[in-house]
Amino acid sequence: MINLYFNLVKMYHFKYKNFVVTFNIVRNMATLKRFYRKTNILLSDGKFEITLDQRKLKTPQRKVLQVDSKPLALAIAAEWDMQKNTIDKSSMHLTALCNTVIDNPHNYTKQDMVNYIVNCLEMDTILFHSYENEELYKLQTENWDPLVQWFCDNYGVNLIKTQSIEAPTVPLETKAILTRHLMSHNYSAVCGFMYGVDAIKSVILTLAAAERVISIKEAVRQSRLEENYQVRIAIFILRSLQLIYFFFLNYFISCYRFRTGDL
Length: 263
What we know:
The protein is of the alpha+beta class. The protein contains 10 helices and 9 strands.
């Protein structure tokens, strides 16, 4: 019982330069037939707007959708251009995110969002490692530890990973440093960070993707590491059960034929 307790509270510290072993975007899901032939972008007062034929794209609160980045504007226009006969708004993630930034339906301040992100660090997916499965723990260590160490080195902070169901404590200094870093970004960027953290349940993976240490696809893969592992195990078990089933089925058929002389 004592050994079980110590296993449950087992934690590992990450230190700077010294490694030691619901935010939801509201979307209008109503179906809408495509009413435009082509999309485009235009520059207006230093910001980029998206046009559907001659109409300017607007947010749910009827504000003109404007962004600071030309690549982002082109990406949003591409989302609308990819729609077929029926507009599927649930597939247009950049449009939805920009709508949320501009309309701010929940009246979040930048400080509100930064506080949310910093508090999420304590529940970061890649700080929680398995204590029951050695193979999974090894997989998590090989994939996640380098990313946690990068985070500590890049921001000059200390973190703790755990094999416990109890959340590790994030030092106040680490929270303060992360807060200053996030506050240095503009409102739109922080909103994007919050969306990323909420989507993959990891501050570390979100910032690693933002810093281009890993790709977005890799960030998602890392966030689903345990889930994918469990799926592989389930498929292996299912296939094993199928083999056992067919083995016994053939065995019983052979026994039946032997008894009836139908060989």
